[in-house]
Amino acid sequence: MRILVVEDERKLAAFLKHGLEEESYSVDIAYDGETALELASQNAYDAIILDVMLPKLDGFAVLAQLRARGDTTPVIMLTARGTPEERVMGLDLGADDYLPKPFHFEELLARLRSVLRRSSPERTVRLQCGDLVLDTRARVAYRGKEEIPLTPREYALLEYLMRHKNQTLSRTLILQHVWHPSFSGDSNIVDVYIKRLREKIERPGMPPLLQTVRGFGYRLHEPEEHSPGTPSNSA
């Protein structure tokens, strides 16, 4: 999932970016309100973490403009003051949650998970493709009754694929949402992680879930009823 952090305190912004990326989120940073609006107009974010006190445009102005142009991205507002009047103003403008500074990072994560679950019917706790199940609250995957051990990056990749099952996703799109839009490494990293994920989730003698679309990308396919001799579509 891709998050926009809007925070002018550079040490705090770097801390949030590092912590969120460790949780397998892809993170962009804006240090002022004008840049935040520009990035939000150019990219599709799953959530925005928005400080109130910002250069050029404050957080209230940013939020008001986002909502005025029909942007419904979940927004968590941060403020060092956190007066009742500020909280009411932020919520009235369309903020989804409000967190006063200083805060514990674990609380921010919990609030982020909460607004993501509420933001769309698709933000369900339990994702399923065939007998492959992903519990997004516990961040655990199962194939049948067997738990599948996943690294944070493998988990992020699988969640993105499961939220877009039966859709063909390009390597570039996967990089943008699972890694980072400015990732400068080789796009073959996607192929490496797909191979690792395939080795963990596929089962011998069963229809493949993770399909390669030659020359384009990958698709997590909802299987039909299993019939013996179904051909494999592995890379």
Considering the chains and any ligands shown, give keywords for the structure.
disordered C terminus; alpha/beta; 235 residues; 8 helices; four-stranded antiparallel sheet
SSE topology sketch:
Blueprint: E1 2-6, H1 10-22, E2 26-30, H2 33-42, E3 47-51, H3 59-68, E4 75-79, H4 84-93, E5 97-100, H5 105-119, E6 126-129, E7 132-135, E8 140-143, E9 146-148, H6 152-163, E10 169-170, H7 171-179, H8 188-201, E11 210-213, E12 217-220
Parallel strand pairs: 1-2, 1-3, 3-4, 4-5
Antiparallel strand pairs: 6-7, 7-8, 8-9, 10-12, 11-12
Summarize, please:
The protein has eight helices and twelve strands. It has helices at 10-22, 33-42, 59-68, 84-93, 105-119, 152-163, 171-179, 188-201; strands spanning 2-6, 26-30, 47-51, 75-79, 97-100, 126-129, 132-135, 140-143, 146-148, 169-170, 210-213, 217-220.
